[in-house]
Amino acid sequence: MQTQVVLIRVAILVAALGAWEIVGHTANPALYVPPSAAVPALGRLLALDSYPDLAQHLLLTLREILVAYALAIAAGLGCGFVLGVNRLVGRAYGPILAALYAVPAVVWYPSLMLFFGLDAASKIAFGFLLGFFPITLAVLAGIRQVNPQLLVVARAFGASGVTAFRKVTLPAMLFTLVGGLRTGLALTVIGVIVGEILGSKSGMGSLINHAYGLFRTDDYIALVVVTLVLIVGSDAIASLVERRAQRWTE
Amino acid sequence: MNQARESVRVRLIQMLSIAAVLLAWEGVARAGWVDPLFVPAPTAVAGALGRIGRAALAGLGETLLKTAIAYAVAVVIGVGGGILLGSVRALRQAVNPFVIALYGMPKILVLPWIILFLGFGAMPAVVYATIHGVFPILVLVTGAVRDVDRNLVTVARAFGARRWQLYWKVVLPAIVPTVLAGMRLGIVFCLLGVLVVEMFAGVRGMGYVLSSLANGFQAAELFAATALVSAASIIIVLSLASVNERLSQWRGESR
Fold first, then answer.
1. Most exposed of A9, A199, A223, B124 (fewest Cβ within 10 Å)?
2. What's the CATH class of domain B47-254?
């Protein structure tokens, strides 16, 4: 049964690629880029033929992601705990935060471009903005999951504030928190890449725009594949961390 | 009594904080601590709203129209596909990994390609926004249909329900909350998609208005336009949420 399902999935994938190959060849290979054209383009890209400075752009994008994510974690944890610890503060500012979260984040991007210019800073700011909300909301949700009676008992047995936090609050909310951190990373990555594609001079997004602007569609597909590997890789690391944290709480 | 007093206090804190932020912002801008070219005072933004109001509203109308079309298509495909995938097990097992992968993939990567195919205009925005909005709905509805209580289905079958009756009387009522949750998620995704396309390759619409104001360094007008879109999307989401709440109350009463 299981192997049968896998076989069907592989068959679907092969059929889709085959159909793409045939349609692409008969219609317009320059626009459709069938797999037989995309694979050599990927080879050229990885051999640094089509874009010799690929590594620099890739590193810049990675650096933007890391800085934005670090800022999002710091601000998200800070904001989340401040809002979560005091009930009244949380009730007052939580809804404002939720309302802002309902705005499609891309409306802020032009303002960020105006503030921070076309360089890395505006991408970092946008990635930060996207990553900040899920982390903050996860901290808020996590704190709500902590059983207050456990805290009272811990304090009654003489646990200090720090110990109570480490032994009671943190384990109880860790699962939700780590989930939020993973979502935050995914959104930070998307934010940086969206920012780069909407306007930049360097980074993977700018290369994608360059290839698209010059109608080098095969190079464009190859760049998208490399960017996807970056995205999937970052999420794989995050999911590994998530599983570790799960085991630690159990 | 106590609760009423607390919610009054909460409202008071909210209003005072917003007023304080606006006042501080105004003060900082007036005192010249920040460059008014980049951070215009709230009063300047309010004035700019009057100047760009007509053009911005036209852009907003166009954006919302595209969003509505994309949303309608996304809901139909998402709910229909979700019911199909949720009820046919073999199909779900074969196709689901691809759906999940496409859901997780940042759609912005295929945007240049969509533009190459469809050119500049309303069409790429509608298509891209539909792709953006359909996946959360599809994934949620698939899960909800899959998890419909087997016992209900078995009992309905045992009592001789026809296929359409099974869907109309058992499956559909069971998945209503999830469908609504997906629809609320979907509208934000659709609006986001339209705005992104308008910013990337638009010649009209709110996304185009925003990016051209940014390119022209018209900060006050840009802030005013941003506030306008934000307010519109908050209103849309909140009203969907209240419809949602009313519907679930209605469901609760009818039981």
1. A9
2. mainly alpha
